[in-house]
């Protein structure tokens, strides 16, 4: 009996701390893949088939520039390469018959290499005329219109992959005493009115010393096609 009183007093001291609710934490859905596509060249937009909100598959054409000049340069470079290759073939036969010097043959080889480099450069520039989707997703915003002339580096399209979301939240750094990757929590999304099971995927690398907070990232346990990027809600978590 003499140990009963100290134990009861200790439990009484712990009870307020255990009963104290965790502070409310807001969280939002952020796409895992999202990017702003900018122009790699100056030119006029010939095709811009997708409107805001429309879906696309990986590899789909998002935009095409009017590139008759680039196409002509590529055709000319390929024709020059063909001519230089045939000249090299002839000079190789003449060299075997000792009708031309080795220097002339070496010059022909160098000219073929130069022409091949010109073709490669023209192909690279021509590829910039067509912008394809790096991942499946949706168009968030168009920053340009069809037939518009844009400069190099101009923003063209905001796109995102809405099949994969992360949950971002800022929580008190004291939670690091018990919060670890894999910890399960619930997200109550305002826009849908539903509850979604999730888990902590990773924890930010730095604690903000001013607010004494840290950023956490979560993953949904099951896909939820009704969710959209930017939706937010209440994070429900227990130690």
From TrEMBL:
Q: Which residues form the signal peptide?
A: 1-19
Q: State the Gene Ontology terms under molecular function.
A: efflux transmembrane transporter activity
Q: Which domain of life is it from?
A: Bacteria
Q: Which residues form the Multidrug resistance protein MdtA-like alpha-helical hairpin domain?
A: 70-123
Ordered alphabetically, the record's keywords are: Signal
**Might you report a single GO cellular component term?**
efflux pump complex
- Give the family, as the similarity comment puts it: Belongs to the membrane fusion protein (MFP) (TC 8.A.1) family.
Q: What protein name is recorded for this chain?
A: RND family efflux transporter MFP subunit
């Amino acid at each position: 009996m003499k140990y009963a009183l100290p134990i009861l007093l200790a439990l009484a001291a712990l009870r307020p701390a255990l009963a104290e609710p965790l502070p409310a934490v807001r969280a939002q859905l952020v796409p895992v893949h999202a990017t702003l596509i900018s122009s790699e060249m100056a030119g006029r937009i010939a095709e811009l088939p997708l409107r805001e909100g429309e879906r696309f598959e990986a590899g789909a054409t998002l935009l095409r520039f009017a590139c008759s000049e680039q196409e002509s340069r590529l055709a000319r470079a390929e024709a020059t390469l063909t001519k230089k290759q045939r000249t090299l073939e002839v000079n190789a036969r003449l060299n075997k018959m000792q009708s031309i010097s080795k220097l002339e043959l070496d010059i022909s080889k160098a000219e073929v290499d130069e022409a091949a480099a010109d073709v490669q450069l023209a192909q690279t520039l021509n590829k910039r005329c067509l912008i394809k989707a790096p991942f499946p997703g949706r168009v968030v915003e168009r920053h340009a219109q069809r037939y518009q002339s844009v400069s190099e580096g101009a923003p063209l399209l905001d796109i995102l992959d809405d099949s994969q979301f992360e949950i971002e939240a800022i929580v008190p750094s004291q939670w690091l005493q018990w919060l670890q990757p894999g910890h399960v929590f619930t997200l109550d999304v305002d826009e849908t009115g539903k509850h979604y099971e999730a888990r902590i995927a990773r924890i930010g690398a730095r604690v903000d010393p001013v607010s004494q907070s840290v950023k956490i990232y979560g993953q949904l346990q099951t896909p939820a096609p009704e969710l959209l990027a930017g939706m937010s809600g209440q994070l429900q978590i227990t130690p």
